[in-house]
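$ run holo --ligand "zinc ion" --emit C-alpha cells
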Amino acid sequence: MWRCGERACGVLRRLSAGSADLRAWRWRSDAACARALQYRVGEKIHGFTVSQVTPVPELSLTAVKLSHDSTGARYLHLAREDTNNLFSVQFRTTPTDSTGVPHILEHTVLCGSRRFPCRDPFFKMLNRSLSTFMNAFTASDYTLYPFSTQNPKDFQNLLSVYLDAAFFPCLRELDFWQEGWRLEHENPSDAQTPLVFKGVVFNEMKGAFTDNERIFSQHLQNRLLPDHTYSVISGGDPLCIPDLTWEQLKQFHATHYHPSNARFFTYGNFPLEQHLKQIHEEALSKFQKIEPSTAVPAQKPWDKPREFQITCAPDSLAAGSSRQTTVSVSFLLPEITDTFEAFTLNLLSSLLIGGPNSPFYKALIESGLGTDFSPDVGYNGCTREAYFSVGLQGVSEKDVQTVRDIIDRTVDDVIEKGFEDDRIEALLHKIEIQMKHQSASFGLALASYIASCWNHDGDPVELLKLGSQVAQFRQCLQENPKFLQEKVRQYFKNNQHKLTLSMKPDDRYSEKQTQMETEKLKQKVNSLSLKDKQQIYEKGLELQAQQSKPQDASCLPALKVSDIEPTIPFTELEVGLAAGEIPVQYCAQPTNGVVYFRAFSSLNTLPEELRPYVPLFCSVLTKLGCGVLDYREQAQQIELKTGGMTASAHVLPDDSHLDTYEQGVLFSSFCLDRNLPDMMHLWSEIFNNPCFEEEEHFRVLVKMAAQELSNGIPDSGHLYASVRASRTLTPAGDLQETFSGMDQVRLMKRIAEMTDVRPVLRKLPRIRKHLLTCDNMRCSVNATPQQMSQAEKAVENFIGSLSRSKKERKPVRPHVVEKPVPSGLGGSTHASGCQVTRKLITDPTFSPCQMKTHFLLPFPVNYVGECVRTAPYTDPDHASLKILACLMTAKFLHTEIREKGGAYGGGAKLSRSGVFTLYSYRDPHSTETLQSFAKAVDWAKSGRFTQQDIDEAKLSVFSAVDAPVAPSDKGLEHFLYGLSDEVKQAHREQLFAVHREGLIDVSNKYLGLGKSTHGLALLGPENAKIAKDPSWIIR
Ligand SMILES: [Zn+2]
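-- output --
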C-alpha cells in the first residue's frame, strides 16, 4: 500500500484514545503503566538501554524510550492497559527517483524470507493468526510495517514473521517481477501475443493516479519541496517504474532496512522484556552499526513565490464539466520536530479552515466559486518541513485569479481581526474530547501519529504530551492576545516560500498518458535482443508455473482453531422506556467520561418518491441551523458542546429472511459527561425546529457532498460495483443502491448542477414529517455507570419534547413484520421487562433477477463485482459460506486476480444480508476476471482444499468476528440489528462446526451457474467485448 499526501499527523484528525479491554472491566486499572514506571534510566535489558521513562496521564500510558546498544536502533514502548497490542517497525526510506523503489521493496519483502521462504508469508499469516490489523505502508519518507493482536502467542508469531521479512527477505528476482514490473506476453504461454507491462505496483500506481485529488496532492508536495526526496513519487510513477532494476532494489534494501536506520514501536499491555528479547535475538544481534545516510536535508526557502499549472482527466461524475479547475495556495512552514510550533500551527490551521465559522470557509466555500476545498487543505505535517495549503476545486478557469485574490484578502483580514474566543475554546474542547474518546485501534493511531516526527529525529514522547501543549498554548494566548495573528503574518503574509498550483482537465489527458506508456513500452521492447525476448518468454512461463504450484506454508507459525475463544463475552444491557413509550437501550461501559447517544427512526411511512433524498437530508440535517440558531451558531454549539452530531441512512437486513429488512435513519452523537444536557437540547431543537430555509448554504452543502461522492469512486469502485450487482437480488439491495450506490452518485450530480435547488430543498420538510418524530423510534446510550441516571433523565426530556403524529401514519409498503428483539440471558436481562419491537418490511412477491451493468468511467483500470443471493445470517449455510468466502480468497482468488492478473486486490466475501460477492479492485482485466470468478466456483465445488486450509479460513473469519469493539460501540449490533448475544453465540458455534462437506455443499447449492441468481457490475473504461454482448446494460 502507498500513502501520499495524507494528513497522517493532524492531532485533531487522528488521535482518539482507545482501550479494548472491557471484559475485565478494569477501567481504572493501570497495571501495565505502573509496571513500566519501574524501569530506570540506564537499565540494560536484552541488548537495549533504557534512556527515558515518562508517564503520560492524559492518554493513560507510560512511555519507555530505549536504544539498542550494538546497532543504535531506536525503540519506543507505550505501556497501556489495552489488550489490542501493536508492533511496528519503521525505516526511513528517502528515494531520489520516481521508480517507486521503496514501494516495490515494501511489497517484495513480504514475498518470503530466510526463515520463512514460502511464497507470500505475509498474506498467509492473515489466515494463521488472530491479528486485528496487519499491513505495510510506504509514505513519502518512511516505510512502516505494523500489526496488532490481542493474543500473546500470536504476537510472538507475527513478530517473528515481520522481523524476518524486514531484515532477511529473499528478494527473489521473480518476486520483483511479480510485485514491481515486468515485460510479459499478454498471454504468457503464447509468445505470439504482444509484450506488455505487468506487475502489482505498476498497476496499483496506474490506479492511484486515476484519482485527480491524488494527482493534485502529489504535485503539490513535489513542487513545494523540490530540493530532495519530496520532489519524487515514493509510490512510483508508472512511466518511471520500468526503469528500476532488481539490483537497485536489493541495494536500496541493504542501505535502508538496517537496524541503524530503524525505529521500533510497541504498544499495549504485554510485557516489554519479551518483545526486546525476541527482537534482539531474532534480528538485531545479527547486525553491526552503520551510519545510514537517509536524512532529509532542510528545504532551502525561496526568495520569491512560484506558480505551476498541471492537467488531469475530466471527471464525468462531478457536477458541471466547465467548472473542474482546482487551485490552491500553499506555504512552507517550520520543521515538524518543533513540537509546540507544529501543535500551534495545526490548531491555527483548524481555525482558518474548519467548519462554517472559519474565515476561509466563509470567504471561499460560500463564495460559490467552487464545489469544495482543494485536496490537502489545511496543515500537512508528513514531511520534514510542514506546509499549509488552501484553495478550491470545481472552479471555472476564469475565476482562478479571483480565488487567489480572496485567499490573500482573507489572510489580511485574519491578521487584522484575529479569531473569536469561542472558536478557540471549541477547538480546545475538541482536543479534550478526542483524547477521551476511545477507539478500538488506539495503538495504530499512535503509531501513525508519531511516525513522521520521529522519522526526522523529533521526540515522539513530547508529541504525546498533549496536556502540556494545550497548557502552553493557553499561556501564550494569555500573554499575547495577538499570538495567533502574529503567526498568520509570519507564515502566510511574510512568507516567500509560497506555491500557487492549479490543475485543469484536459480531454486528451488519458489518451496522452496511454500514448506515453506505449512509447515507453516500445522503447523497452525495441532494445531487446532475440535472446532477451526468449528469456522474457521463459521467465513468464516460470512465474506462471510458480504461481500455479501448490504451496507449502508449513514453515510458518500458526495459531490453531483451539486457540480461539469458544464463547463470546456477553454485554450487559438494560432496556427502559422513555416517556412511557420509547425503548432506550442502556449499556454501561468504561467510556472515560464520554456519553454516546444514538437514536434510530424508521422510514416506513415515507413516500417512495422521497427515498432517494434521504441521504441528502441526513447530510444537511445538522448543518442548516435549528431553533434560534442559524447554521453558523449551530456549528459553533456543536463544536463547543459535542464531539459530533450526525445522521445516516441505513438498510438493515433481517437475520433470518432474505426478503425482509428494516429501513431508517441513525442519529449519532457524543459529548463529555458535563455537556449532556446541552447536547440533548441541540437534538431537541434539530428534531422540533430544524431550519430548511437557508437556500444558499444548502447549495454549498450539496456541492460539497456531490464532489465528495465523485472523488470517492477511485478508492471505493469495488464497493459501488458490489452494491450495484446485488441490486436486483433482494428487496434490501434495491434500497441500498438508492442510498449508497451509483444511482445516488448520479442523483447528487444532477442536484449539484441545478440552477434552482428550491424544489429539492422543499422535499426536506416533507421527509422530516415522517422521520423526526418519536412514532417509530428507539434510542441507545453508552456511558459510565455513574452517569447513567443523568443520561436517563436527559433522554427522557428529549423524548418528552418530541412531537407525536395526531393520527397513525400507514406504512407505504403493504407488508410489515413486527419483530421483537430477543432479550436473552447473560447480560440482556431487561430488568424493566421492556421489549424493543422492530418494524421490518417484507416483500413476499419479490423475485430476484439477473442484471449486468457496465458503468463507463474514464479509468484505465476496472472494478468488477459479481453477487449471488444465498442464505440469511441464522442459516447454518451462512456460516459455511462465510468460511468459504475466506477460503476462496486466500487459496484461489488472491493468486488468480492479484498475482497472475495484476489487479491490486480481489476476493470473495459474504455480507450480513446474505449476498455473496466476488470482486476485484483496480483490475487491468474485466471479462477475464469474471472467468476467474467462475473458475473459483469450480475450484470450490471440486473441494480441492485441505483441512489445514479450512482451519486457516476459520482463524481468519474469527479474527474479524472477534475484532475489538470500542466502549462506544458495545451493544450496537443488538441496538441496530436486534442481534442478541445468544444469536451471536449460536452463529459462532455454527462457524466452529463448518466442515469440508458443508463447504462443498454450499458451493454447489448457491454458487454454481443456474443455481441461484447472480448479478454483475463493472466500473471501468470502454470495453469492446461487453459492448458486443447484449446481456449487458451500459450506463
Ligand atoms: Zn502498494
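-- notes --
The two ends are 31 Å apart (CA to CA).
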